[in-house]
Amino acid sequence: AQTVTQSQPEMSVQEAETVTLSCTYDTSESDYYLFWYKQPPSRQMILVIRQEAYKQQNATENRFSVNFQKAAKSFSLKISDSQLGDAAMYFCAYRTYNNNDMRFGAGTRLTVKP
Amino acid sequence: ETGVTQTPRHLVMGMTNKKSLKCEQHLGHNAMYWYKQSAKKPLELMFVYNFKEQTENNSVPSRFSPECPNSSHLFLHLHTLQPEDSALYLCASSQELAGPDTQYFGPGTRLTVL
Fold it and tell me: Quick check: A44 and B41 CB within 8 A?
């Protein structure tokens, strides 16, 4: 069974600084997708960034980028120039290519200090 | 309205009550999902519907009964729940069941079972 592990229950960062959230996963599949979702205090989960496993190039979305290490099964999220609005729970998620059964990690609560 | 909406946002019910959660997606998607989010635990997939047909039931107790009358609406009927069923119930939708499609989440219903 595929599992997703987020080893940092809580992280904090100073406004304008950079923070990296860790995620590892376990799978025997070769084709899959990885996601980072953000859940602000209002609770609506929104997609931050997505990575297809067959792509070697790391995905980026403005201030958000990932470090995808397929061999190590690692998928970390880097937030640059952190803003107060980045404070939220961040969930790493995994899904195989042919199945929409999304597996989530337990989440990392990010606090941004002004 | 846009995106995925859920009603009610908060629900308190006794163990003998019967209630229903409603989800509506305004995105033209074909697949819809129910997730359970408990404190400090990963999101748990409960049910998956594709074109109104249930494709997955992750060993969910029968006191939870889903209904999908059309691709835009999804219900979760609740009866004789237990206090441990208290959680945030999230609805999500995606264009297709497999492939690279992202799941879009609703704001959730915070359920408390007394």
Answer: no
